[in-house]
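so the lab meeting is tmrw and i was supposed to have these ready like two days ago... anyway. pasting both below. for each one the top line is the aa sequence and the line under it is the structure tokens. i havent really looked at them closely yet so no promises
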Amino acid sequence: MLSAMPFVKITTILILGIVLSTFFNVDFTLLGIAVSFLLLLFIHLFVHKYYRLSWIFGLSILIFFGLVGIARTSQLKQEARTKSDNGSEFVVVRVVEQPKVTAYHVRTRVEIVSIKSNQGWQKGEGQSLLMLEKDSTSQIVKTGDLLAFEPNFEEVESNGNPEAFNYKRYLFFHLVSQQAHLKSKQWTLINEPKTWFQAHNLDLIRQNLIDRFRQYGITGDELSVLSALILGYSNDIAAEVQQAYASTGAVHILAVSGLHVAILYLILSRLLFWMGKDKYSKVTKLIVVLSAIWFYSLLSGGSPSVLRSAVMFSLIAIGQILHQKGNIYNVVFASAFILLIYDPFLLYNLGFQLSYLAVISIIFFQPLISAWWVPRYKVLQWIWDLTNVGIAAQILTVPLTVYYFHQFPNYFMVVNLLAVPLSTVLMWVAMLFYMALPIPIIAHYIAMVLKWLTFAQNYIVKMVGSWPYALTTDLYIDLIQLFLIFSTLLIFMWFLAKPKASKVLILVSGILILVVYSDWIWYQKQSQKKMIVYNIKGHTALNFVDGKTHILVSSLARDSKASDFHLKNHWLSLGLEQEKHLSTKQLQSKFALSSIIKSNHPNFFVKGPMIQFYNKRILVIQYPNLLERYKPKKLKLDYIILSKNVRIDPAQLDLYFEYQTLIIDGSHSEHNRKYYRMLKSLSPSKHIHMVADQGAFIIDV
């Protein structure tokens, strides 16, 4: 079966090479690739005369593409680590991403164009994230603009909190490893004559098309949703609208996806019906359609799902011209192969993962589900087709969405039946709107239809999201469970493809392994005892975990957004259910009774700044004069936590306490951190843990 799908094997090996090179320092240069290719040719010539040895050539092919994945990924890793010289006088950068205006900053991605140093101007390399202070000038910066400033780049750091979003890794996969924060007077916008391409680049064309919506009276949520749905621009979508689409399983509507490319392909094919059927006309039609598809794909931001669809349609269309009807799985994996050769880091893009899983799931499961029922009427058939496609797409994508988002939209089928057809109509009407722009009166009425259709779609999504039990939250599976679930699903698909009794035993074994592992994880969570000092900038956050209950001692307000962002995913991974919250202000009290009542835990005791959790004794120092309470008599402790920007020399602490580890929590300023970094370098024998540099401090009690 796999012999008819060579790209399935080749792409799988390529992915293994990418993963290996991403997480391990495997550097396989292009010279190694060239040598491997020559060796491959030699093996081919050798085994050509001996058919029984042909498997050697096939194995060599797979090894070769595995090495290609390693080499290409190593090359991009090197590009992502490219840095500019902070010792230079000036750096000139070009804005390569449409700037996003936030509450305090204008954020954008830039490429280093040139650097001025003592040796003169030199060509720059690499990309950076730029945070400009929000003002009237920064808000008019657009794609293609040149900015100049004194370089003061810093490494993008991860907060190091377990299960938290790894922003450093996210940017690294977008070839960015450094950032700069600039105040209004620290940068200059360079006015340069724009070339034709710079003046007509795709971002500016997209903004111009969005302005046409605004010009004809489409504003607010309707404008932001329409801009996202039609043109892939989602920067202006309100948080509550984004949440409504996410909680109903309709968030894919807000991103230009393969569905949009398919609709465009259908529209263009219908509009070009008049072209002849001779070979010349077919080739001309192919060029027109593919040019339009690729232009639209890049215009809408080039998301992985759109690129996947564009490559797939290109391969299918070219195959039709050449009278080659390929295996659909081979086409899907061939498109993935092309995209991953171009950018191996697309493998770690959630849109890429969901797009391919959804397509494979629909191709395999939809015909099986569709056969369950054959409606007699066309309307019922249309509804059933939408339903079974939606169900099929969920089978392989649900485990991944639960792994990333820890939630499941219970009414996703309702949204698919209502909002998805409406979004298709919006695509058609939007195209009519742009075609009617030369005739303003017609464009005006079409814009009114667009506005009300978008309003209706938003209303449907919000209405479904407000229904009881619309969203199941706080779901959690770890990476091993995700792997076991997908392995079991693949075995199930293997069984459905060619049912055999022997495969049932393998399927049952897979399910059993998943159940046993999940039960073992559950048992581990029942008996866990941990102390955690999280890294939250500007705050203290200490967590004491005992089984499924935990006590958070923090300067954060209860139910704060920072708490959800930094802590919630980790709490889900630990299976925590009952939370007690104590403010760090209570550590200033000399009376223990109030803390015992509030924590209601027999193994957690607080008296002033002293905490005891089982057999661990922790002192939290929030004020420098705290040492006046104690006499220099070497009080035995396990951990000392310095908080609220307190600066104390560890040598002074040694006079009062005998302890294992000094912990510098996340509440300290960068100035203070430099002080403790210096002390740490001068006294490497002392165990000092800085959560800002080393991530959260976690111990099993």
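ok protien two:
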Amino acid sequence: METNKVTQVNEEYDADQIQVLEGLEAVRKRPGMYIGSTGERGLHHLVYEIVDNAVDEALAGFCDRIDVKIEPGDIINVTDNGRGVPVGKEHKTGLPAVTVVYTVLHAGGKFGGGGYKVSSGLHGVGASVVNALSTWLEVKVVHDKKVYFQRFERGKVVNDLKIIGDAKDGQTGTNVRFQADPEIFCDTTVYKYDVLQKHLREQAFLNAGINIVLTDERDTENVITNSFCYEGGISSFVEFINKDKEAIHPDIIHFSAMAADGNANAEIAMQYTDSYKEMLLSFANDVHTTDGGTHVEGFKRALTRVMNAYAHQHGILKDSDDNLSGDDVREGLTAIISVKIKDAQFESQTKAKLGNTEIGTLVNSVVGEKLSTYLEEHPAVAKAIFDKALAASRARMAARRARDLVRRKSVLENASLPGKLADCQSRDPEDTEIYIVEGDSAGGSAKMGRDRKFQAILPLWGKMLNVEKARLDRVYGNEKLMPIVTALGTGIGEDFDISKLRYGKIIIMADADVDGSHIRILLLTFFYRFMQPLVEQGHIYLAQPPLFRLTKSGQHYYAYSDAERSKLMEELGDTDMQRYKGLGEMDPEQLWETTMNPETRIMRRVEVEDAAAADSAFTVLMGDKVEPRRRYIEENAKYTENLDV
């Protein structure tokens, strides 16, 4: 029985109740405001902030090598050969500048004074935030032929800046070592090499010629080192992304331009492939702007305008023909948009979206002028691109006709939801969830075992379509995919509207075998390619049914992996064991207890940290090329205990 709780609140609200957090206390109090989260993502963000400072030195022209090491104990060590953080006394505080940089928010060389023309560390909080969220941090600065040293603990100064030695002639730079504070990062303080590798490779692509070296020293008998240096810059980035795709023109289209006042630069690299999807990545001062911004808007407007102008001018489109849409001209396009700008205006500390209007104008202008010239000078490439765009346009029209047919059929049948859907009673997406289940047998058990208040069940039937090899027009009418679209309520393609989502959790529940894994990857491909916001906003989950049931003295125990089964058998001794070949072997009570009860079930939320990596993975796994798929499976088999996604 629920009771209403009344909390007594002090009605007086005066100056005594205003809490002032001094120094870096605010960062430790609310770390998520500065690094996004205190989970795995925030942990790695600490490294990015220190590396960003070194990259800023490279942007300023004073650094060409950055070394990043993961030492035993997950200690991070970052060294650059830049100018070194200034060590002289800061005139306002009387403290050494390096001390101010690591202990005062919004302090540094990025607020004026000519220290940096452009910088990814706009807000000037990177070094001090890392210091605040570390158990300890040590900084060495090589400056004026001396080596300076200072240590901090949880953001507080342990010793004054001191000289600990002489530097070699011409040697300068900064070295930062720190250990993340487990009081802040409660989930984990263990770094993932692959995550850091992806970010550092990206930085090397964005800064042609800079050498970034990543070394993992945690296993002293198996030290891993990778060096990233790309003279081709973002053109090499496009080549890297397209390595497992079939390009429809051999050369990567590249152009750049500087603003008239010298305060901004725009650089674009692009190439079309035989894919049906676009891959557009944008960066501002080397920061990945995941939500785009004015530079992306400027690129899209100019690309659509230039393509339609060329098509009409050269008779590819008649005057009476409709223009190509933005989606048509971007189908199969891989593009990198990188802008460097003084006084970049990001919408938040995490810098996900750029807001400078002048950079949108610059990108629009450079694409409009230089792409037009490129198409005129390369008619064979232009023909290949327009053949692709026209095919996309025809498919879009076919998809619209198929969509309208599906709508008319639904009206005639007077049914807005799939017939096999067992809906839930609640209509609040915050509370509801839908299980997409393979097979009528498992679907029947799920329907009987569920909590009908908030759990809906949709059994799958019919042939599953591999959408990696299909455009939108083939999705409409597919007997297995369209019931999913109808049940979710969001629509797809032009109609997609996440605000109409009927269930907050979309849970894929398939057998724990090869066929189940195939079904999961087919569904994930569909969601990622045609309903991507569902993945990006964390609505997609994978159910984790058990592989084994062990019984002893009438008590049941469930194991979700071979290793877990072995451990239970060792602990329990002689037991009766049942291996589940499929979900249909479980009765409703077992399915509820192991896989559907929110208090006992295990689920994985599908997250996409890196759009380029996800795009590549789906292309490799679900595309036509066999060799890249074989290579991917061999390289990643070591990460799976069981056959799983």
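from a quick look at the 2nd one: Residues 1-21, 638-645 have pLDDT under 50 and may be disordered. The longest strand covers residues 134-143. will dig more after coffe
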